[in-house]
Amino acid sequence: MARTIIDIMTGVMASDIVLLDISEVTTIADFFIIATGESERQRRAIVEQVTEQMREQHSTRPLAVEGASSGWLLLDYGAVVIHLFSPEQRSFYRLEELWGAAKTVVRIA
Predict the structure, then answer these.
(1) β-sheet bridge partners, residue 36
(2) Which domain holds residue 11?
(3) Which of 32, 58, 78, 102 is deepest in the core (most CB within 10 A)?
(4) Cα angle for residues 8, 77, 95 (degrees, 5° grid)
């Protein structure tokens, strides 16, 4: 599922996509996908495409969607949690550093 989401996100121009395997570090999920959307409009488009295509391709919907206009959107698909940031929020929160013990599976700049 994580690879499908990454494919969708690259198709709508998300940038600096990182897939972290957090399964050895925590039980909250297996993977984090961290990505950047340059504008609020682009972040909304990314979220819309991910939710629509995941529903069509995998008959699944996110368990939760948080942070509509905060610059940090979170989509929870259970085993996969997506963190979509504005450039400023990503730089501020630095999730890759916070979860530094996790294994980086994919990085797409």
Answers:
(1) 15, 85
(2) 2-108
(3) 32
(4) 80
